[in-house]
Amino acid sequence: MGYCCFRSSPAESPTPVTSNLSTERISRTTATTTNTTSSGVSNFSKDSHFSASGGEAFPDGHILPDPNLRIFTFAELRAATKSFRPDTVLGEGGFGKVYKGWLDEKLSLRMGGGSVVAVKKLNSQSLQGYEEWRSEVNFLGRLSHPNLVKLMGYCLEDKELLLVYEFMQKGSLENHLFGRGSTVQPLPWNLRLKIAIGAAHGLAFLHQSERQVIYRDFKSSNILLDGSYNAKLSDFGLAKVGPSASRSHITTRVMGTNGYAAPEYVSTGGNGMTKMAGLKSETVV
Question: Which InterPro entries match (predicted)?
Answer without folding.
Answer: Kinase-like_dom_sf, Plant_Ser_Thr_Prot_Kinase, Prot_kinase_dom, Protein_kinase_ATP_BS, Ser/Thr_kinase_AS
